[in-house]
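Person: At home tonight, work slowly through the protein below, taking as long as you need, and write a paragraph about the fold.
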Amino acid sequence: MARADLQAGGSQSGTVRLPAPTAWPIVLAFGVALLFAGLVTSASVSLLGAILVISGCVGWFCDILPHEKHVEVPIVKEYIPVTTARPQVARLPIAPDLPRALLPLETYPVSAGIKGGLAGSVAMAALACLYGILKQGSIWYPINLLGATIYSQSARLDSASLNAFHLGSFLFAALLHLVTSLLVGLLYGAMLPMFPRRPIILGGVIGPVLWTGLLYSILGLINPMLDARIDWLWFIASQFAFGIVAGLVVVRQARVRVRQFVPFAMRAGVETPSVRAENYPEDNRP
C-alpha cells in the first residue's frame, strides 16, 4: 500500500497525498471470472473474459507505471472533545533512539511460492497416478477425469474408455494442471507475508482444507463426471501432498527483507530518475 504523505503547503488545512482511485482491478477480477465461467458455458464467455483481463491488466499497469498516480485530498479539521474518567494517562515505555520496527523484517519472495506450487503439482500428480493404478488399474483414469473439466470429448467417455490413453484428454489435463498449479503458486507467494515463519501451515494445512471445501461445493458444476467418480479420501490426500511439498520447497528458499515503503516502480526494477534510492532507508532499498 502506498504511503500517504502529509503536505502542509501554504493552506491552513493542508492535503493528504493518496493513491488515485481506479476501477481496473474490478475489471480484471470480472474478466477472470468470465474467463473460467466460459469453461462450463460457452467459448464466447471466455473470449469476453479474456478481453476484459487484457484491458484490466493494461489499464492497471498504466496507473502505476512508470509513476504511480496520486490525488491530493484536502484535510478537513474536526475538533472532537475527548473526555476520560482516568486521573492520568498511561504511557508505554519506548526507547527514544530506536526506529520503529517493520514486521515482519524478512519474508519469502513470490518466486518461492511459484517454485513451491510447481513442486507440489508434481507430488499431487504422482499421488493421483498412484490412485489410478491401485484403485482403477490404469494410470490414465485420473487424467481422463481431469481432462473432462475443459475437454468435451472426455466427458463422453464410458467407464472402460476412462482407463485408456486419449491424447486430447492428456494434453488438456496437463495444461489445466500446470496452469492451476502456477496460479496457486502465485497466490501462495502473495500470502506468504502472512505466515513468514510457518509457510507449511499455510500450504500444508490451511490451503488444502479451504481448497477441498470449495471444490466440494462447486465440483458438480465444474466437472459432473469427476464429481460422480471422485474418491474424496485420495483427493484430500493429494491436496495435503501438494501443500506439504510446496511448503518444504518454500522454506528452503532464501528470505528477503520487506520493502513496504519503497515505491512500486523501484520494487519492479523500472528506471525512475525522479525517485532516488538514497531517500529511503538502507534496509529497504532494492
Observations:
- DSSP finds nine helices and five strands in the chain.
- Residues 1-76 form one domain.
